[in-house]
């Protein structure tokens, strides 16, 4: 078993995830794994970084495939005894002009961005080592979407006693109501991506609370973040930040110093805790 520290970034063959890997290769004192669904794209991304003099490793990982997730978990457990840093970056967004029916967009977006991220966390959080750092890449859209929810939904999403089960139920309810065309009447915003990222932000609050209760002495810090509006395939060419600029806050949270106790369970943008 390797005694090296190890970091894993999901969905990192391009965009913000790729930039996070680049930064971690320069700043993290251990092995850094770039991961992607597609092996060819992932290995090409690794080779690309090697031309910069960096040395990431590659592991195939499709967060929507439970077998792929378990295989990756077992690999890191057996080779390294767990993970020191996990950056959950993988996600999707439909383009504004996409003509796919909203109900289908809601189902696909929530399945990937929320449910798959949650399922991966449930496999990987038990192998996060003491002193570990977990970063769930959310979005400023989660705050915007939250403000467009009904007061009842806002109260639940902001509450300190919401459970993971209740959160999953609410996310599934959104999909069902979107498929019936009733979501706006039922107090939901008209953005599947925004709701999926509400899920990621609230999930992070729940996970951090659970870590405090179940692994209090392990000093694991888990936060959600907004990387900002970044020029990627997802956000388009008009965004204000480069991918490297978008990586700054996720990398800051991934490298919080030993002994730090904050932020924990927070929503962080521009390296600052935001009011949720």
UniProtKB/TrEMBL annotation:
Note whether NADP occurs among the keywords: yes
Gene3D superfamilies named among the record's database cross-references = NAD(P)-binding Rossmann-like Domain
Keyword Transferase attributed? no
Which superkingdom, per the lineage?
A: Eukaryota
Can you tell me where the transmembrane regions are?
none
Enzyme Commission code(s) on record: 1.1.1.184
- A GO MF term: carbonyl reductase (NADPH) activity
Q: Which family does it belong to?
A: Belongs to the short-chain dehydrogenases/reductases (SDR) family.
| Record's protein name | carbonyl reductase (NADPH)
